[in-house]
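sanity check both lines:
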Amino acid sequence: MKPILLGILSAFFFAITFVLNRKMELGGGSWLWSGSLRYLFMVPFLLLIVAGRRNLRPLFRAMRLHPWKWLLWSTVGFGLFYAPMCFAAAYSPGWLTAGTWQLTIISGSLLAPLFWETIATPAGPVKVRSRIPLRGLAMSLVILAGIFLLQLEQAGSLTAKDLLLGVLPIVVASFAYPLGNRKMMELCGGGLDVFQRVLGMTLASLPFWLLLAGWAYASAGLPSTEQTFQSLIVALSSGVIATILFFRATDMVREDVSKLAAVEATQSGEVLFALAGEVLLLSADLPSALSWLGIGIIVAGMVLHSHVSHRRPKAQFSMEK
């Protein structure tokens, strides 16, 4: 139950990203600065945390062992996740990007066959290829049905351009985030704690963010004071607090693909939190009766997903050669 609660709490802090990114775009800020500033601001905070715990040296030692893997999967997990999300905010309201982002619930489940897990057998622990958790996937579809209802009335006011540029980048991000996160968990094993892993991935993705910042400066000049301050808030709430909470939750269940999918499903709460944030901060309309029905289905789907994750079905696995 604790990983689920941590996942829901992380969804609250993640939702701030959708609201503030949209606010920055409406205020004329460049999505390039919104993306790069968040991760540039994260570095000093994470360095202080990890250094205060006296864990910098083991992290740097681990990064030196597999530098290219750190660079690749950190860029996928952070760069190809957040840059498309900021780009989408330039064309779609926060509720749409938050809603489309829930595809990650299914994306994470579909990625399961790319990874191996350890199971206990009479002959001892054996590594097997993970299978797609079908029960969890069914509950994910329930959650997505609720999200569809939540957005049905509002989506009618969107243009084809809004849908294309606001949805497709989020589809890319929905696969990149769980893929990068899981690959790094696989690479680190239990050797690094969540603070070290988040800092390591942030440092390893810096080349990507510095290139993005250079592009932002060349195309839009320096960011405004308001955008800089809002990016700092996003860095603290979403980049540091939410990411650490979510990575901690996934670390706790990394050996069980069904429970891992359930933790990832808690991110559907971002839709509810983002909707509330847009109503309070951006004067968005209150949800209709149909939208409230969608909210109820989302909550029910999250509860069911958590329940079925503890009733793992028997399955046949392909053995690692």
